[in-house]
Amino acid sequence: MFLIRPSERYKTTYLEGLKEFQREGRNLKLDASALEKDFSAFVAMLRSREGSSGLPNGKVPESVFWLIDNSEFIGRITIRHGLNEYLYRYGGHIGYEIRPARRRQGYGKQLLELGLQEARRLGLDSVLVTCDSDNIASRGIIESNGGIFENEVPFQEDTPLIRRYWIKLDR
Ligand SMILES: CC(C)(COP(=O)(O)OP(=O)(O)OC[C@H]1O[C@@H](n2cnc3c(N)ncnc32)[C@H](O)[C@@H]1OP(=O)(O)O)[C@@H](O)C(=O)NCCC(=O)NCCS
Fold it and tell me: Which residues of 38-62 are buried (b: 16+ CB within 10 A; e: fewer)?
């Protein structure tokens, strides 16, 4: 099992995973049939987000990695290289997801563990990781990876509180 930057090699299982995410209402901004037609453009766009030029307004550079096991796309982790005000309050440095068909098999914990190693390689000393207070799985993943709870903050009126954790990265 390993992390890899987005690659055309995993087109088939990435697209299978995307369909699973979309069935549960996630990643709806991605047009699966357009990606099917031009996957290389999608991969290039994801990779380009590491650079600071051409980013959408207010976005910070980020590195995207895919978790691969047995040649299959299992999930994604995104590591932002810094925090803007929104990320400091709510989003944190790291976002991740495991494709629905592969959940509850320990992949989420390993995804964050491997992602923290990449964050260290990117030069971060500590990372802010957040999750909704009712996301029990994500809480477990963060806490088992050394997350030190800082606080819970309100987001919107009709959404759960957001739990903010810091994880120190050893040098
Ligand atoms: C959150 C998510 C990444 C978990 O991935 P996963 O591969 O199922 O997680 P793991 O198998 O490593 O499980 C981690 C822990 O959560 C528990 N868990 C997993 N799914 C759970 C669920 N639906 N309800 C309660 N506990 C759950 C596991 O039993 C495990 O607990 P343990 O520490 O006692 O062993 C996955 O559900 C997901 O992608 N959700 C949608 C996106 C999301 O919420 N991302 C996180 C944003 S902060």
Answer: ebeebbeebeebeeeeeeeeeebbb
Domain that holds residue 61: 2-168
How remote is the CA of residue 129 from the centroid of ligand 1, in Å? Answer: 15
What tens digit of pLDDT does each residue of 1-33 get? 999 999 999 999 999 999 999 999 999 999 999
Atom number, ligand 1, closest to the C-alpha of residue 143: 33
How many residues are recorded in the chain?
A: 171
H helices within 24-155, ranges in order? 32-37, 39-48, 85-86, 107-121, 136-144
How far, in Å, is the centroid of ligand 1 from the Cα of 65? 18
pTM above 0.85, yes or no: yes
Separation between Cα atoms, residue 98 and residue 66, nearest integer Å = 10
Instruction: Report the CATH number that the domain containing residue 112 is assigned in CATH.
Output: 3.40.630.30
Number of domains in the chain: 1
